[in-house]
Amino acid sequence: MVADEVVAKFDSVDTTAICDADKSIRVLDSGIRARSAGVRIVGTAFTVQCRGDFFGVLRAIEAASPGEVIVVDGGGREIAFAGELFARGALVRRLGGIIIDGGYRDISYVRGCELPIYSRFVTPMAGTTAQLGELQIPVTCGGVPVSPGDVILADEEGIIVVEPERVEALLDAAAATKEAEARVVAKLDAGATLSDAVNVAAHTEALQRGERSSLQFLA
């Protein structure tokens, strides 16, 4: 389970600031979209791998601990690996969310659900229930590797995956980015231009000279 201080730190930032802090962060394919009313996720991954059969997802929902996020490697298949009953079951168990590289159904219920639910497809056709699936193994979801215990962070912008030992430092760096952006916003609101707030001219000149440079906020 993610520590309370990590949850609190994520409340003050977003996935864009985290990505600005680390360009190598794992970001799930944008084809995996929020289907529910709730979208923000902060929790550790409980992984599932299944192909054409959703029984493994049911097993995961019943085995995961409160706050854990069910991450399903469904191979990108356009079949439903879960629906309303699984969402309700996950709510009862106080899970942190469900992310499926595959389909979800019963969207008339899901779209109002506070449990964050993400999927690649919406489809009425469910898979079979004849295979166990594999739980708590390294999987691929949304084109990126996810291991059991990785920290999942999601919001309106997308879903990212972070190693647990790095998450606090990344959130601190993201908070610093948000603070710098807030200063830029204040300048713009006061009538300044982007060139007054960002080193546009100096960065341009350095690039023209073939020098290494980075775009930065001005103090």
From TrEMBL:
Protein name in UniProt: Putative 4-hydroxy-4-methyl-2-oxoglutarate aldolase
Binding residues for substrate: 105
Cofactor: Mg(2+); a divalent metal cation
Keyword Repressor set for record: no
Annotated function: Catalyzes the aldol cleavage of 4-hydroxy-4-methyl-2-oxoglutarate (HMG) into 2 molecules of pyruvate. Also contains a secondary oxaloacetate (OAA) decarboxylase activity due to the common pyruvate enolate transition state formed following C-C bond cleavage in the retro-aldol and decarboxylation reactions.
GO MF annotation list: 4-hydroxy-4-methyl-2-oxoglutarate aldolase activity; metal ion binding; oxaloacetate decarboxylase activity
InterPro entries: RraA/RraA-like, RraA/RraA-like_sf
Organism of derivation: Nocardia colli
Pfam families cross-referenced by the UniProt entry: RraA-like (PF03737)
Catalytic reaction list: oxaloacetate + H(+) = pyruvate + CO2; 4-hydroxy-4-methyl-2-oxoglutarate = 2 pyruvate
EC numbers, comma separated: 4.1.1.112, 4.1.3.17
Binding-site positions, Mg(2+): 106
Class of the enzyme per the UniProt entry, highest EC level: lyase
Alphabetically ordered keywords of this record: Magnesium, Metal-binding
Keyword Lipid metabolism: no
Top-rank lineage group of the source organism: Bacteria
Subunit structure, as described in the record: Homotrimer.
Family: Belongs to the class II aldolase/RraA-like family.
